Structure to design on (798 residues):
């Protein structure tokens, strides 16, 4: 507290609306208190106080801008001399792409003389934006000096980061600040190769790189860069006295925008944009049910008030970018990633996805966000309803199709081709637009089913043909930049893969064994919702607290489960392929394919939920007899000459957990059949009631027994549960000791059962196997030479 203020009252907590912090750099800020009663011993003029703060700030800004100035000077120099990234990039030298003929459709990069000017503009914009942000901060009635200190500290921390690896990639200064804050000190390979052609040369980009390699920012940063540029141009045109219409049509060709901005609510509807085989139910969710939707509701609250104010100029604001993703969760995640990068730019990003109240989304759209991330179903719906902001989709400056191979799959998204028709309807705008198409399996070409191979008219799809088809479908410009960093193995480099051969019946036991022995955040994939439901029930009984995720669940619950999974380092998520693509859940250690995916692409994407951002991860396939053909197909399509290594299983523990699993399965079976019978009876009773028919108990569809029989079966179920509980409480040695003798006949040391690292265990096992193989070889060699010697000896004796 300042020395000239004498305290005569008490500090009181100040209630603040958390929305005021949105988009502001206040992390580290703990609480706000006010002191209403105090005596001033020696008053200082307020102007002087503010002057001091301003001086402090300007000194800091000088420091920051000198540093940034140096960096951007480097950028200019390099862009002027036009270092051709495609040829000279060290990453390219180190890493040979799988497709050397890719250059056929890659034009040479040309330096652009105006790049220096553009970047000067950008720096101006960034400093303007920072000024605006600091002005905004002043609006809050709080201890300004305290806040300045906090933000200054943070900025100092950013300046300490060495961000030189981003040089020459044209990353705008405010984005660089946000990246530094996030600790992203260098670009990932796909980012390093995409940014220059996308930003400097404004090329369309087709990008393929392994899962978890940072593709989101590879398209996100160029979009943010260009939006800042367009906004700067608009601002300078406005300062020259041009009208808003002239400005927008000058810069982006946006025109004919309706200013009808009424606040009428639109009804919520169902959608089915996710995995094609899964139809989804919609829900009417409350605003603050999950952390993710909480964020949405915060946005919408803010927008409610905004909406009442109805800023008419907002409706004239262009929609700059549209990003389409196959799932709702992915759309929300892409929005989050972009918001992190755009933190200091003032650019707004919103999501338009199914399963969430469309009224809120309509309200958010009224704020005219620069970027919309959407799933096709809901986007189409709101477009059909005539949303003003969305009606600008044919004027967008950027179109991104994330997970593009999935998005344009035949018959997958009905709305996709209609959407593309509208987006591409204006030929002039289409030519000006920049399009990004990304996926980990974009350039992935493999043989179709054998029966198609021998069909007369079957066309052999090459990688080039696949991309050309994609370009036509999406409406890309003729010569896009194609960046393919995928390995021929398909999966991420840091991924360890293994298999467990099993019978269908034993899959549950192997899964429980794995979860028991290797706790850690684990994502289990199955092919159907029914399978997920059964597994959830069994693993709940086994005390594993599984979280389901499939397309039949309410969106609210889906997001809740995802959040819970993210926050539990030992979490277990049981999911269908709705979670296979794009989800960036931090530190998933294991992916288990309880059922083998039907396509190789799905295997790559499912496995890609672990081993992200160069971290290690393990993928294990449980291969039953019915899975064998799919397993072989995946191995063939991924050019694997050898089978995946078998995951080592300690038979003793396996036997120890077997009893628990079979008890849980029995309980589940009993409960399931009882519930099914009850459900059928209820349905029958209701139908009878509707027809005014009275039914006796013995006339129901399923006879559940008399009262005594029913209490007996309840008791039986209860006993089974008690038995399972006592088994689960036993240490693993005791579970099998006596009943299941070990191979050696000895009771093994407890350390043997220590829960541990699955990848380490697999590696040790393969090393041990190598050593055994080597020693076997040596022994056979020794035996052979001994035999030879004996033979020679016998020969000479003769
Ligand atoms: N330059 C960077 N430095 C460090 N981490 C980064 C960088 N860029 C992105 N990341 C992080 O890498 C992770 C993966 O990024 P992202 O989700 O964009 O991958 P992706 O390639 O789109 O994966 P998928 O193919 O599965 O969709 C994210 O957690 C992201 O925050």
């Amino acid at each position: 507290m300042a020395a000239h203020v004498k305290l005569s009252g008490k500090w009181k907590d100040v209630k603040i609306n958390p929305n005021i912090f949105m988009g502001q750099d206040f992390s580290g800020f703990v609480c706000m208190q006010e002191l209403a009663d105090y005596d001033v011993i020696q008053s200082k003029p307020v102007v002087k106080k503010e002057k001091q703060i301003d001086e402090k700030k300007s000194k800091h800004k000088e420091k920051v801008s000198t540093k940034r100035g140096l960096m951007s000077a480097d950028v200019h120099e390099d862009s002027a001399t036009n270092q051709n990234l495609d040829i000279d990039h060290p990453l390219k030298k180190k890493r040979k792409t799988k497709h050397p003929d890719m250059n056929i459709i890659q034009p040479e990069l040309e330096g652009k003389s105006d790049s220096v000017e553009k970047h000067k503009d950008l720096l101006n914009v960034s400093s303007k934006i920072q000024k605006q942000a600091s002005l905004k901060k002043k609006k809050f009635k709080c201890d300004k000096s305290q806040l300045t200190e906090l933000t200054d500290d943070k900025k100092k921390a950013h300046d300490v980061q060495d961000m030189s690896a981003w040089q020459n990639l044209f990353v705008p200064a405010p984005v660089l600040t946000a990246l530094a804050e996030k600790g992203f000190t260098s670009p990932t390979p796909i980012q390093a190769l995409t940014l220059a052609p996308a930003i400097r040369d404004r090329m369309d980009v087709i990008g393929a790189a392994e899962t978890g390699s940072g593709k989101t920012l590879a398209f996100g940063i160029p979009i943010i860069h260009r939006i800042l540029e367009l906004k700067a141009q608009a601002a300078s045109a406005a300062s020259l006295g041009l009208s808003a219409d002239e400005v927008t049509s000058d810069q982006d060709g946006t025109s004919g925008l309706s200013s009808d901005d009424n606040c009428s609510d639109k009804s919520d509807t169902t959608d089915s944009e996710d995995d094609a085989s899964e139809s989804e139910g919609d829900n009417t969710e409350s605003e603050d049910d999950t952390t993710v939707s909480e964020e949405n509701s915060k946005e919408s609250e803010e927008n409610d008030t905004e909406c009442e104010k109805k800023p008419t100029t907002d409706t004239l604001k262009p929609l700059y970018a549209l990003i389409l993703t196959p799932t709702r969760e992915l759309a929300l995640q892409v929005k989050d990633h972009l918001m992190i990068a755009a933190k200091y730019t003032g650019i707004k990003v919103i999501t338009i996805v199914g399963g969430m109240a469309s009224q809120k989304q309509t309200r958010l759209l009224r704020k005219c966000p620069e970027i919309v991330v959407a799933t096709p179903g809901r986007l189409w719906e709101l477009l059909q309803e005539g949303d003003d902001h969305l009606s600008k989709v044919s004027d967008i400056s950027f179109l991104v199709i994330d997970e593009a191979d999935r998005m344009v799959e035949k018959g997958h998204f009905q709305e996709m081709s209609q959407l593309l028709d509208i987006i591409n309807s204006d030929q002039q705008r289409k030519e000006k637009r920049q399009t990004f198409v990304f996926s980990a399996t974009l350039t992935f070409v493999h043989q179709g089913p054998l029966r198609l191979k021998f069909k007369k008219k079957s066309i052999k799809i090459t990688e080039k043909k696949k991309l050309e088809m994609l370009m036509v479908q999406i409406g890309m410009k003729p010569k896009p930049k194609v960046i393919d960093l995928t390995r021929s193995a398909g999966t991420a480099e840091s991924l360890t893969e293994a298999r467990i051969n099993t019978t269908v019946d034993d899959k549950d036991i192997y899964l429980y064994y794995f979860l028991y022995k290797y706790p850690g955040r684990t994502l289990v994939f199955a092919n159907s919702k029914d399978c997920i439901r059964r597994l959830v029930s069994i693993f709940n009984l086994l005390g594993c607290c599984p979280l389901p995720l499939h397309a039949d669940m309410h969106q609210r619950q889906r997001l809740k489960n995802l959040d819970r999974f993210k926050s539990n380092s030992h979490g277990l998520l049981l999911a269908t392929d709705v979670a296979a693509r794009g989800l960036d859940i931090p530190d998933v250690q294991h992916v288990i394919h309880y059922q083998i995916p039907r396509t190789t692409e799905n295997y790559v994407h499912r496995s890609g939920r672990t081993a992200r951002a160069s971290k290690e991860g393990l993928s294990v396939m449980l291969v039953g007899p019915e899975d064998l053909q799919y397993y072989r197909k995946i191995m063939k399509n991924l050019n694997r000459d050898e089978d995946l290594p078998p995951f080592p299983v300690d038979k003793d523990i396996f036997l120890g957990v077997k009893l628990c699993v079979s008890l849980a399965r029995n309980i589940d079976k009993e409960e399931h059949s009882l519930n099914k019978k009850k459900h059928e009876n209820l349905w029958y009773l209701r139908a009878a009631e509707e027809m005014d028919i009275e039914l006796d108990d013995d006339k129901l569809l399923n006879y559940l027994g008399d009262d005594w029989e029913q209490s007996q079966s309840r008791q039986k179920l209860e006993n089974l549960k008690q038995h399972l509980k006592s088994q689960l409480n036993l240490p693993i040695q005791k579970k099998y000791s006596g009943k299941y003798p070990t191979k050696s006949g000895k009771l093994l040391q407890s350390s043997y059962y220590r829960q541990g690292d699955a990848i380490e265990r697999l590696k040790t096992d393969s090393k041990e196997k190598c050593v055994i193989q080597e020693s076997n070889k040596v022994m056979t060699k020794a035996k052979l030479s001994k035999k030879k010697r004996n033979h020679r000896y016998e020969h000479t004796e003769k």
The mean pLDDT is 74. The chain is about 50% helix and 10% strand. The longest strand covers residues 495-501.
